[in-house]
Specification:
Belongs to the glycosyl hydrolase 28 family. This protein has 485 residues and is α/β, with parallel strands linked by helices.
């Protein structure tokens, strides 16, 4: 008997060593793949260079601006920008004080600089955002009110300084156009609903952009900061409050840095930073406390996103803090042009009013390919819904099946989670592919994993509610009843 036992041990031991060796090789391969991915991030970083400006200052008070916050300084500010631009560039300086203004249009080689104690207070009069300009509104191109700060086809532009940009929106101004009672709207008041429906149909019909005319009578709120088709952009150090709509929205831009910016605004669609169809973007050291997504990466809506075909590409997000918001790092939903090479690291998130940590939202109305998304080193206090969410049913279905693949989340630590740990709602014919969660700990969730259609989903050294997630746990999620959320 002893001889048989020894023979069995001798037979089993090589097999055990083989399995152990195989698992070790698998983990080594995964480590190698993630290391290689972050080397790509390092190479992207070298492509993102902040613009430089001539050492010349153009003080807006020398062009007629006054710190009487009841008198518009729009003309003086734009005159200073024009003079700076024509003189080869430099800083247009907003000194200490509060200056009331309408739309500000940046031009090449101009740094709009707010000194300590300076505030730009934006007008509530829609006339001050005319003439209408070419803009994107929720990923759809149109002619609408100018964004509060706008640039079209410019290069080497910046908004810097320790001052405040105040959009001056509240439940009496701008926000009620959303048609939500919690934002001051009541039955019979003007709202955006008819215009959104009309614009969506025009996009579907391929109506030329110059014929998609909005503005007065349509109630589409303008974005706060929207550089459009521009390059070499810096937004640094300012605080942004009370936005009418999206806060920082570079569209079709390249080489964008958003650094040490604070966004605190809780109105409807008050997303913090929405780089859209843009390439080589760095968002670093920022603070977001918002009424919508903190950072939402986008690439156009439906036909506009597909026809232009510019993905969101090469984004690095790091050393940021997120409080309230629908999501911390979000991709979508206006993502028809696709997204790739998105890197997020060294983040802090903590709020019972933060719904998700990593959120991917799309639909078969949107389409597009979302791929090569990497997140690591994220410390989370609490959130409401899901730590990692992939939702392919965010809006009504259509004829353009979305693809979501190659997502790696590493070193995610959650002290007190919400409803779900990981939540995947995908199509059977387009499962979420190659989702990896590595070396992570998620505590305090009601439902550890809910996933219907996935392919090659991997949990490597992941604890959820103190229990190590096994291959059997992953397999059982696809066989369980899917709980609506």
């Amino acid at each position: 008997m002893k001889q048989v036992r020894n023979l069995l041990i001798a037979a089993v031991l090589p097999f055990s060593l083989l399995v152990s060796c195989g698992e070790s090789q698998k983990k080594t391969q995964e480590t190698r793949e993630t290391d290689q991915a972050w080397k790509v991030a390092d190479s992207i970083r070298t492509l993102i260079v902040e613009p430089n400006f001539a050492k010349k200052d153009f003080l807006i008070t020398e062009y007629g601006a006054g710190s009487d916050s009841t008198v518009l300084s729009t003309q003086a500010i734009n005159d200073a920008i024009e003079a700076c631009h024509l003189d080869g560039g430099g800083r247009v300086v907003i000194p200490k004080g509060t200056f009331l203004t309408g739309a500000i249009h940046l031009k090449s080689n101009v740094n709009l600089h707010l000194e300590d104690g300076a505030k730009l207070l934006f007008s509530r009069n829609t006339t001050d955002y005319k003439p209408l300009v070419k803009t994107r509104w929720e990923g759809m191109e149109c002619m609408n009110y100018s964004p509060l700060i706008y640039a079209y086809g410019q290069e080497n532009i910046a908004i810097t300084g320790k001052g405040i940009l105040d959009g001056n929106a509240n439940n009496e101004h701008w926000w009620p156009w959303k048609a939500k009672k919690e934002y001051g709207w009541s039955e019979g008041m003007d709202n955006q609903l008819a215009a959104v429906k009309r614009l969506t149909q025009q996009v579907k019909d391929g109506t030329p952009v110059e014929d998609r005319v909005y503005g007065d009578g349509h109630f589409l709120r303008p974005p706060f900061i929207q550089p459009y088709n521009s390059s070499n952009i810096l937004i640094a150090d300012v605080k942004i409050i009370n936005a009418p709509f999206w806060n920082i929205n570079p569209v079709l831009c390249e080489n964008v840095t958003v650094r040490n910016v604070s966004v605190v605004t809780h109105g409807p669609n008050n997303d913090g930073c929405n780089p859209e169809s843009s390439k080589n973007v760095l968002i670093a050291g920022c603070y977001f406390d918002t009424g919508d997504d903190c950072i939402a990466i986008k690439s156009g809506r439906n036909e506009d996103g597909r026809s232009i075909g510019r993905p969101a590409e090469n984004h690095i997000i790091e050393n940021c803090e997120m409080k309230d918001g629908h999501g911390g790092i979000v991709i979508g939903s206006e993502i028809s042009g696709g997204a790739k090479n998105i890197f997020a690291q060294n983040l802090k998130m903590d709020s019972p009013e933060l719904d998700r940590i990593l959120r991917i939202k799309t639909s078969s109305l949107r389409g597009g390919v979302i791929e090569d998304i990497y997140m690591r080193n994220v410390e989370v206090g609490t959130y409401k819904e899901a730590a990692v969410l992939v939702d392919m049913f965010y809006e009504n279905p259509g004829d353009f099946m979305p693809t979501v693949r190659n997502i790696t989340v590493e070193n995610l630590n959650v002290k007190k989670g919400g409803k779900f740990g990981v939540l995947i709602n995908a199509y059977e014919e387009s499962p979420a592919e190659n989702l990896k969660i590595i070396n992570s700990n998620i505590d305090g969730v009601d439902v550890p994993i809910q996933a219907n259609y996935t392919k090659n989903m991997v949990f490597d050294n992941v604890l959820i509610n103190g229990k190590l997630v096994t291959d059997e746990d992953v397999q059982s999620t696809s066989e369980a009843d899917f709980e609506k959320f």
